[in-house]
Design brief:
Number of helices: 10
Radius of gyration: 24 Å
Structural class: mainly alpha
Helix content: over 70%
Distance between the termini: 67 Å
Number of domains: 2
Shape: elongated
Largest sheet: none
Order of helices and strands: HHHHHHHHHH
């Protein structure tokens, strides 16, 4: 009796068959991951290239860009300010208290620059944009794809990439940078005012600002710009590419949300780690 007939009659799986199945599934996952990464990078490069062309910015695209600046930036402003107050009271105030307690008040500027401005601030803004705007963007585009609205735009002569992807990605990147600036200012101001009210700070306002600026170098200014822009760009790009995967089933949209969320979280940590290492 041959091996194939024995397997068909008894259902027995030979060890080599099981190993082959494991390798096959592993290979398929690796190939799928590599394909997704390449598609993400190629789409990001296409966004940058197309954004540099004046013909891309027709009135409809400009209108979408302004609309998403309002949705991502203005709608997230209150939450960003609230998180900034919590960070200010929880981090800046604690830094003022403990450094004064141990007689190291001169380190306050460097501490806040390293912990808040370089690491924690951009990371918190990235998660705010992801939770507040990235998931909504993915669900919106996934619903449009499932209902055939993307094909309708294409049939009317409107390029879905130019109309749907470019304004969302660029608006999210720009607004993430703006929200990062707001969060840093609110955090530092609320922490300083709390510490000053409790007589923990020996600095005046202008002196406090001077101490912070003195502790910052070119790498810190570069991080304040590049980290938020990179995070916003990646979150919106992942939301767009995940939401626009072809489908005709609305039930597929909720199943994409966890996938897009996990990919965005990984991208946020990779971007913050990359810029922290090189700058």
């Amino acid at each position: 009796m041959t091996r194939g007939r024995l397997k068909a009659m008894t259902g027995y799986r030979f060890p080599m068959d099981a190993a082959g199945d494991v390798l096959s599934r592993t290979g398929a996952r690796v190939i799928g991951l590599g394909r997704s990464i390449l598609m993400l990078f190629s789409t990001g490069i296409a966004v940058i290239v197309q954004a540099g062309r004046p013909l891309t910015w027709r009135r409809t695209v400009r209108t979408e860009f302004v609309r998403h600046c309002y949705l991502v930036g203005v709608h997230s402003l209150a939450l960003t300010a609230f998180v900034g107050v919590l960070l200010g009271v929880g981090l800046v105030f604690q830094a003022l208290y403990w450094l004064k307690l141990f007689g190291e008040s001169d380190l306050i500027g460097r501490f806040l620059v390293l912990v808040l401005l370089r690491e924690l601030g951009p990371l918190m803004v990235g998660f705010i944009v992801l939770g507040r705007s990235g998931s909504i963007m993915l669900a919106e585009l996934g619903t449009m794809q499932a209902r055939g609205q993307v094909h309708m735009l294409d049939a009317m002569g409107v390029d879905p990439f130019l109309f749907l992807v470019i304004p969302r990605v660029l608006a999210t990147a720009l607004c993430t940078f703006g929200l990062s600036v707001v969060l840093n200012i609110v955090s530092l101001a609320s922490g300083y005012l709390t510490g000053n009210a409790l007589n923990l700070s020996r600095y005046g306002l202008l002196e406090f600002v001077y101490v912070l600026l003195q502790a910052m170098g070119p790498s810190e200014f570069a991080i304040l710009l590049l980290k938020p822009l990179g995070m916003g760009f990646a979150v919106a790009l992942i939301a767009c590419t995940t939401g626009l995967v072809p489908t005709d089933q609305l039930a597929d949209v909720p199943r994409r949300l966890p996938r897009g969320f996990v990919r965005s979280v990984v991208a946020i940590f990779l971007i913050t780690g990359f810029f922290s290492l090189i700058l």
